[in-house]
Amino acid sequence: MNETCTTLEPLLPAFTDGELSARDRDAVQDHLDHCADCAREIRLLDETMDLVRRYISEPGRARPLAMPAPSALRRTRRFFRWGLAACLALAVGAVALLNASHTECHADAAMAEVARKLADIRDLSAAFHKEFAYSTATEGGYDRIKVSGRIWLQLKPEPKIKAEEHWRYFAPDGAEIKGLADDHTWLRARGVTEDRHGSPKDDNGVAASIGGSTSTGEYTTEAAAEDDAAAENNANDAAEKDDGMRELLKGGLFESCDGEALLPPAPQQEVYELARMIRGLSEDGYLKWFGKEWISEKTAVLKGETRKLTFVADAAGQAWRLQVELGPGEAIKLSLSMNLTDSLGQVLGVNESRFELTALNEGLPATIFEGVEEAVESK
Amino acid sequence: MVEEKSAKSDGSLADLAEGERGGMLRFAFGMLHDWHEAEDCVQEAFARMQEAWDRAREPRIYLYKTLHNLCLERYRSKRRPQGVDRPVSVCRSESSENEALAEEQRLAVRRALESLPEHERAAVLLREAERFSYRQIAETLGASVPQVNNWISRGKHELRRRLKPYIEKGRMP
Predict the structure, then answer these.
(1) What is the pLDDT of chain B when averaged over all its residues?
(2) Which of A34, A336, B70, B94 pairs with B172 at a CA distance of 20 to 30 A?
(3) pTM for the whole thing?
């Protein structure tokens, strides 16, 4: 390299980008015609940028599937999927509704509405992404499971929702059970539902997808894989549970998917929905179904930054707690406690249940509790 | 040269979203090295764009400016991204040689990008992800065109210096 090379070298990137003035461009071109070193430098710069462009153009890489979880853990996993599926259904429903209106409305208005709704959904999504470190634990004899999930939405070129779950398994002593770490990916798009744990399923559209046979099919697939005598019983149990869960969702979350606002506009509406859910849980005997198997705690941001919903159930279905933060310094708590005759791990029935509704803060408007009162009862 | 979309008469927000999403994802990924984080930031940028639609004079610049800020915010909050020092696997079979090389290159590009100062990285990525002109990059990053020229020159030369071994390795038959 000579002095000219050193002088012109800083100009080479702008030369390849076509950003030099005519005078500088001519000067560089004249030099390149006679300097093999700088010509090579130009080629290296081009190849370097090829590498960079390739890197940023193929960010998504397939994640390997790990071995499946033991059947004892599947029911817990399945419930989580139901929760996730419900949220997915909410989001798919919203996108579907908005997409349907897209052809009828002015594109700007429709897009604005989509963006507004997405902002709401994003809050929920962000909750999955940032806060949904879902963990379970039981006392004695049960594995602990930790999972984190993320969910994200794509609006263009077509509405699509993907979710990813990461599972890790822990023994009661806290040691991770190696080899069971599991990634699970969902894809919901118009006309197709894909699940890494099952075959792609063709649906008749988003509504069919929302209809929620995914979990049933999923269970059937899993149950079919069971080659022990308990498979049939498991399938029957699963069908019963799935029916019950579907009813629960119809009474609660699914109402929102079928045409009502995605998220209730007022805090009271959120409370009503939650109250209906709580009441439905008891009426449907839902707690019996999950019994010992389910314990969860999850927090989702419903709207804005301060409104949170925390949903907790213990391993034996002995207590449910649902807490809603309505805004800064405003929160109520709905809880359902159940005293069971059976010991932990042998929950077959419920002999007493009690609802409690507690305002955690003073000064909440009385209307908050309208429509919730009938859920506050003792049996 | 990419046609500049400087006025809303060019189209709706929907058109803008459709046209820019790919480039925005590439840019955000180059900044964050995480596909999911990139998706989040792009979505957030669109949401903010929607709110500012009435007052944004140059929506495209506004979008990228917002996205750049979101990426910086997220990148700084993460401090050093996980996995950046993950060693390249040395256990390779013959059949996986190409794949290993590709992975090695990816890690090298990531490290090289992360070695750049933030403004140099952003300038290079805006150029390479979306073919922004230097003037558009200057507007997006709130800098002058000579500054951008300087950043891109330094950034690209530094990337070239760091990635040269991988380029030469990639040429080998």
Answers:
(1) 76
(2) A34
(3) 0.42
